[in-house]
Structures are given as C-alpha cells and as structure tokens.
Amino acid sequence: MKKTGTDFQSRLGKGRKKHCGTQLMENYFKLNDLTASKELLNDIISYAVKRNSWIKEHPSVILHFQQAMQSFIRAGYLIALQEKKRTATIQLEEVSPLVLGLLSEKEYQNPLLVFRKAFKEYSIKEFDYFISGMVYFSLGIYDHLPERNMISPYIHLTKMLDAAYLIIERKKQR
C-alpha cells in the first residue's frame, strides 16, 4: 500500500528540518506584510469574480503569493495540530472593535481557535484548491465563474492571517 500523508515541507525554505508552525509563520511574515497580504488576497478574490477583467499585478507576484499562502496554510495546520492541548488565552480588558478586525473577542483572546475552526471545516487540499482556483480566475478573462463557495474559505484565510500575526506578536512580547 502506498502511504499517503500531508506534505509539510515549507515552500519558503529548503531542507527537512523539524517543523514548527510558529517558525513557519514568522518566516511568512518576514517575507510578507500583513496588510499587503490581505489586500492582495482581496484583489485576487475580487478579480476572480469579475468576468471581463484580470488582476493588474504581474503574474509572477501572484504565483509567488499563491505559494506563500500554501505554505502559510500548512503552517496553520501545524499550529492547529501541535497546539491542541496548549491554549494562548490572555485576559484582556476592553478591546476596540478596530483592533479585533474579523476576529471575535474569544478568537482575539485565543487565536488558536481560528485555526482549529478553519481546519475543522476545510482540509489543506480544499484550501489549496481554493487558492489555486482564485489565482487561475484572477489571471484571465473567463465566461464562467468558480463553482464553489468562495466567501467562507476567504474569511477563514483572512482570520488566519490576523490570528497568526497575533500569535507572532504575543510570542515576541514574551
């Protein structure tokens, strides 16, 4: 029988090292800014839905972003697996709605909930399929639209970006 497993090899680095989800997230944010990533993801989604236009970014930028997001998704999956027993809950006083973004107060206090919820609903392959499809449709003009629900994976990815950034920032503060 052929053994099937999930490829955890980061597309951002080389070699077979022991994988740590937070380290992969740190590498992602060293190469990509949070706001720029969210804006580019938003542009890709909006151009994928438009029928008569394509994204203005150079295709190499879009494909690099696709690979970075696939690595980010794998890092998020590692975080969800490795941190099942550990919680990163912090008691916070009143939090401004602007700081929360798409995260609820519970998710802001424990960002690991975002990853658990996302990977309970979608698998890594489904997120990869979503990213690949959106990049495909955003790079050209097509008569048909994507056949699957695009909003839910998009919201999960946006929340995961916010949650990962929170985890990295809290790790730096310790």
What does this structure look like?
- The chain has helices at residues 21-31, 34-49, 59-82, 97-100, 105-109, 112-121, 124-138, 151-173.
- It has 174 residues and is mostly helical.
- The protein has one domain (21-173).
- It is globular, with a radius of gyration of 17 Å.
- The N and C termini lie far apart (46 Å).
- The mean pLDDT is 81.
Task: Give a short summary of the structure.
By secondary structure, the protein is mainly α. It has helices at residues 21-31, 34-49, 59-82, 97-100, 105-109, 112-121, 124-138, 151-173. Helix 2 runs antiparallel to helix 8 (151-173).
Distance between the termini: 46 Å
Taking pLDDT < 50 over at least 5 consecutive residues as the criterion, the unreliable ranges are none
Whole-number average pLDDT?
81
Number of strands: 0
Helix amount, in percent?
55-70%
Shape: globular
Strand content: under 5%
